[in-house]
Amino acid sequence: MVDGSTTVSDNYMVTLSGSDGGEFVLPFKAAIQSILLKDTLLVDEDEEEPHTPPTETIALERVKSETLTKVVEFLKHHENDPMPEIPHPLPHDTFEQNVGNDWYQNFFDVENMPAPLLFDLMRAGNYMNIKSLLDLACLKVTFMLNGKNEEEIREILNLPAMTREEEERARIQHPWIFEFEGTNN
Q1: What does the alpha-carbon distance between residue 88 and residue 156 come to, in Å, rounded to a whole number?
Q2: Residue 123: in which H helix or E strand, if any?
Q3: Nearest to residue 27, comparing CAs of 8, 51, 5?
Q4: What is the pLDDT of residues 55-82, one digit of tens each?
């Protein structure tokens, strides 16, 4: 609080449970960065206080505990300092240059965040309606795929190769996908 006072919700903790049973506790203020959690906790759009203290665990059946660990880490990191908007158009050519902040670089480092976990994090950010997390994860994927050929993209996205029939159907239904075939751009 700017004036040094505390609110009732400063003492509230929210418990989340992942689809595989892992439980995570985080401060109310961190939790309401997620629109899903904010709506679940019955917070009015113009208010930052719950109508009643959260007492029950919020089950997130679409989010695995491994992913929820990263979501909670992100929310806690931004509890008192919202993530700045990602500039458009992007001013730089790499993820690291665009985010600049060491915390984001470490959070999304391939050692800490292998591709399958990154994609799960994107789905969690979308499901839980955490725009800043979703935007940042999408930015990371954008730079992961940038400059890659078809086979490299298939491998990163874990996509099976198309059969000849599937490719012919795709060329007819979605010709724009193949517009840059054979170019290095």
Answers
A1: 25
A2: helix 115-127
A3: 8
A4: 789 999 999 999 999 999 999 999 998 8
